[in-house]
Amino acid sequence: CIALSVFSLPPHPHKPQQHYGITSPISLVQAKEADLVLTHRLTEALKPYGVFEEELELQRRIHVLGKLNTLVKEWIRDVSETKNLPASVIESVGGKIFTFGSYRLGVHTKGADIDALFVAPRHVERTDFFSSFLDKLKEQEEVKDLRVGIIDILFARLALQTIPKNLDLRDDGLLKNLDIRCIRSLNGCRVTDEILHLVPNIENFRLTLRTIKLWAKRHNIYSNILGFLGGVSWAMLVARTCQLYPNAVASTLVHKFFLVFSKWEWPNPVLLKQPEDCNLNLPVWDPRVTPSDRYHLMPIITPAYPQQNSTYNVSVSTRAVMVDEFKQGLSITDEILQNKAEWSKLFDAPNFFQKYKHYIVLLASAPTEKQHLEWVGLVESKIRILVGNLEKNEFITLAHVNPQSFPGPKESREKEEVSTMWVIGVIFKKMETSENLNVDLTIDIQSFTDTVYRQAISSKMFEADMKIQAMHVKKRQLHQLLPSLVMPKRRKHSTEGLRQMNDSSLDLSLDSDNSMSVPSPTALSAAVPTSTPVKSGPLGPPPSPIAAAASQPEIQASTMSPPAVKRPGSPMQEERKRLKSDSEVFYSILIAIVQPGVYRMYTPCTSLLLLQVFVAAILGQ
């Protein structure tokens, strides 16, 4: 039940080599002495980064898993007794822990969590796992916190009376008559086991994968939730490289990895084996059948049934960033193989905060640590929606979110608040016909924040003072927000402040480094006469069109408020609303139509409502 390292011997020189993958290998050349020397240097270069676990910590993990496995078997016997199963069945009922993810692959790092799956027979319900087993865990002295620890636990209930000791989760027949939640729980183990069975040499695969994972993390492209690749996706890319070069050692495989995927013609999928249909009517990735699958930009397909695309979150920007990094990795490894550079150069972290001229800083804050933990998780899971919105803007070429988050600044010392900050680098298109370009990102930002608030409210996790803030920051202003370890303070502080991104109107001087003009959403009086009645929505009055000349605003960070929730009023209140004068209705609609800057603030649904009110007023209804 504990994942152990598996060693593969090199193929016998006179024995036909096993074929791996969906195509023939590119090269069967055996490793040379120089390749082995480079591999040794690679191993030494990895050690300072803590990618290899020490023996003491490994033994501790094995001890914990062993104790947990015993605990699971005891718990399953207890549940069996409460359900009055025969004594003969109780003794042989079994139960087992399987590991998956980086630990099962053998590439876990110091302090990394273990992904574990509890497999139980059919008479043990999911409700039992989340009730009686949870109580049993709490009784253990070693368990300090069920949220924080070294093991993440999933549960799967198989349609078997007993769980045999030699159970192989790769058997597709185990999926018959299973709840979809159990199938999803099994998927992690099934995919991990398939990957290990589909590579020619597991040790070469592991060292290559450790290298690629470290490189991806150092280059800020390791995050499935933010639209880059997660651990299983990187593992499948490395596994495919191993299939194409089955006799190569790690130093060669790292170079071939960058060679293959810098030239890969996306969106052609990466497959480790031909997809199989088990006739279980489970949804699988198939662009011939499912129209939405045709729009996936960088498909990497899991090898276990039901096959899924592990990279559905990838966007145009994240794919462009990763392909560019592949090309740079190829250039560096070319130098390394020619003895013109050391392996350490591959792990040099690029300075994300010097890469772009313009950034959007996103802050999520909540009053308490517990609320902040839930709020940040929700906001982070939706950042890819913001990136997608920015990509659709005709004036934006690329939106690159940094997967690393930072503690956000506090609004005031007196007020208790916990905040987290993300930074998105933005590249604007250069317009040859115009020196200055006004870019309005109001709808892009508002659509994102509305989505977050709407889900928080519908899931009943939203609390007062949970906030999202977004502001435009120029490169030379980042030091005012980021920790000094990330961005050393400049000698000369910029006099320009940080721009509030609520209204997100940007004055982009493409040929210079002038500041962007972002008017405050409350400063509507600059565009609308003070005598004109304008009704404020949840964000205050909508912004006005901005002048082409850039201004010097002060540092400010106001809040993107949640959308107003409509509640049914009393009949008298509804009647009063209906009896509003036609002149007031016409006047409000007239302002929305005449003021372009105002009209842009309304969402399509609001605009449709305005038109309906307008028509109703004309017809006298």
From TrEMBL:
Residues 21-199 form the Poly(A) polymerase nucleotidyltransferase domain. It is an enzyme of class 2 (transferase). This is Poly(A) polymerase. One of its GO terms (cellular component) is nucleus. It catalyses: RNA(n) + ATP = RNA(n)-3'-adenine ribonucleotide + diphosphate. Its cofactor is Mn(2+); Mg(2+). It comes from Oncorhynchus mykiss. The keyword Nucleotide-binding applies. PANTHER family: POLY A POLYMERASE, POLY(A) POLYMERASE ALPHA. One of its GO terms (molecular function) is poly(A) RNA polymerase activity.
